[in-house]
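Hi C.,

You asked whether I'd gotten around to modeling the 480-residue construct. I have! Everything is below, sequence then structure, no commentary in between.
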Amino acid sequence: MKVTIARFNPETDAEPHQETYEVAVRKGARVLNVLDAVRDEIDPSISYRHCCRGGQCGSCAVRVNGEPALACMQEAKEGDLIEPLNLPLIRDLVTDIAPAIAQMAWLNAGDCLNCSHVSAEDIEEISPLRECIECFSCLSSCPAVGASTYAGPTAIRQQRRLNLDPRDHADRVEEAVAKGLFSCTTCHKCVEVCPKGIETPRKAVEKLRALAVSRGLALPAHKSLAALIESTGRSVERKEPTFLERVPDVIEPEGTVRATVGFFVGCMFNARVVQPALDAMEVLKRNGIRVIIPKTQVCCGSPLIRTGFTGFIPELQERNIKAFVDAGVDTVLTMCAGCGSTLKNDYQTPFRVADITEFLVELGFEEPAKVAGTYTYHDPCHLLRGQHISEQPRVLLKSVAEKFVDMSPRCCGAGGGVKSGQPEEAALIGAVRAEMVKETGADYIVTVCPFCEFHLHQVTGLPVKNIASLMLEGYRKKDC
């Protein structure tokens, strides 16, 4: 097979470059086997790391076609592009991981005579965090690293691991704050690329943030937001009639009823950007879907969970679950990626939760007319990684867009409380996303998240449309 490998010799090369090699390997060969073949048969000077060859040491982590992978575990494919991790480069595929290792904290037992006993419960909570093999794939992929002083997912995971260990005597919460705890956008890219699937945002970042909040170390903007939610049940202040004030309790569809659902509007679509939610109701009506809208629903709690203010969460969960149970629905639709991810992952609901794009594609939808323009799609992190929904929005978008240009996913910087708490960092992350949008040549960006919508418009200057609004535009054009 032919593969392309990034090469760099600091003694002779001004910049890294790519070279293509053709090697003979057995069926099912791993990327590491290909690298071995290049070294043994073509160029013995090629540099790369490897050790255990069993996915346990993390030494051989590289990027394959842009995404981190363990070379010993990733099956090689014709045309693969093999590059180093996005870390300081030493030579070829070898990166300098010494700075990352220096950020790692180590057990500080203090006076061992006073070390506490490690209980079975401690071990159970620590265990998922101990599986890290320090391949630094997460560090290489983290959008917040480079846009702030954030030490990265590996370092914060270690802080939480030691924080849970009763033998450790250091103040890991204060250390984590100093290492940029509130810089994580909770985009879950680190989970996506982790060979061990460690849930660093949920099991480390959010847990440490809750401890930081309990000690008065929260960011001022997050304190204000938490106070607003606790006093009003909403994360956005009412400045005009809200969505819930404008719509009836039940919206009947046009023609035959094909399905009945509840609708969870979320704070942004309820009070800040109401029109997309109203447009979504028209799209659901058009497709034979009866919508029941409980007026007692409140904030899902996502802004509180992400920023560490978890004390008020049980009450919000109880109120929301009761609202939809009382409505008698077995499916609740969301159109905010953050709300949907929270209801699916942080609640125990007696009903199904589905994103509007997920439900429409599953049920089947009326094809709209094509709307003029070139469109690209931005994957909200809480939809892509929080709900594992990627293809459905693209199916809808392709049905209505005159021209669709796809774009690879990347966090825009709006999530995890970063936009409100550290806007300069959010802007830097957004600037990278803006360059990716520019490369598509799109006239419009389409997304399924109000936070992404606001932020992307800010950093790109382009119009950003909700998928429901664009579909309604297509239906109205079809009716003309």
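If it helps when you're writing up: The chain has a mean pLDDT of 96.

Thanks,
B.
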